[in-house]
Amino acid sequence: MTTNRKKLLLPNSMGRVGWDLLKDRDDIEPVGFPNTIGPEDFRKLLHDASGAALGVTPFREPELAAAPRIQVVARIGVGYDAVDVPALTRRKIPLMVAGTANSVAVAEKAMYLMMALAKRGPLMNALVREGRWWDKLKNLPVEMFEKTVLIIGFGRIGTRIAKRCLGMEMHVLVYDPYVSADKIRAAGCEAVSDLDAALARADFVTIHCPKTPETLAMMNAARLARMKPTAYLVNTARGGIIDERALHAALSDGKLGGAGIDVFEREPAALDHPLLKLPNVLVAPHVAGVTRESVDRMAMTAVRNLLSVLDGKPNRENAINPEVFD
If you average pLDDT over residues 215-226, what whole number do you get? Predict the structure, then answer.
C-alpha cells in the first residue's frame, strides 16, 4: 500500500460503478461528499485534493484558491456553467466532461417532450380519467410527419436528435455557428445561419447548446414572437437560455403552442412558478440526462477522466480546455 495516495473527491450520489473502478487503485483515496454540501465545507475538503468530480457543486475562484494540489476537475455530466473554466485554465487545470455518456438520455427526453406536446399526452390521459372522453375532438393532436424542427446546437446531443427526427420523417433545420454547413448537410439536415428567420419556419424548436454569455436569454421576447403560434419549444439544455417571463407571456397570450421545460433559471423551481400554472407546459426536474443507464455511464466516464489526467494520459476529447495539456 502506497503512503502517497492522491485524494479524489466524489459525490456520494455518483453511480456505484464509478466507485468500483477505484477498488484496485492503491494510489487513490476516494473521499465522498454529499450533493448538498455547503461551499465552506467543500473548500475544506479541497485543501489536499488532487481531483474532484462535480454533480451540482459549483467550482469557481474560491474553490480553486482552496485547492493548491488540484490537478483535474470533472463534471458528472456535460454542462459546466457552474464551473469557472478560465480560472481553471489559468492554473493549467483541465475541466473534463462526460462526453457522450448522457447524450442518448437527453435526446430521448427531448423527443419525448416534443411528442407529448404534439400528441397532447397529459391532456388525453386526463380526459379518460375525468370522464371527458368526447372532449378529445376539441383538442386534436398533431402529427410530427413532415413538420419542421429547428435544432439549436449540433453537438453530441443535437446530432442524436437529428437522427431521431429524420426517422420521424421530419424536415430538420440546424442552427450552430460553430459547426460547418457541410457537416450539417452530410447528416441529412439543412444548415441555417439566420436564427431569427429559422424560428419563423419551425413547428418545433429544441435547444441543445451550452449556457454561455452568448446564449443567455437567447430565446427572448423578440425571438419568441418570431415563432409560429402553433409551434412548440423544448429546452433540455440549461435554464436561462430561455427568458422565462417572455415564455410565460407568449404561452399565456396564445402566441406559442406549448413548451417542454426540463431546466429552469432557478432550481429547484418554486411551486408558485408561473410556468407551472399553464396547461400547455410540460415540466421535469432537470432529469433529461439522468436514466438508470446514463448514471452508470456518467460515473464511469467521470472517474476515467480523472484517472486519465492523474496517470498522465489525458482523454483530450472530453476536456473543455484541452489547451492546458499543451
Answer: 98
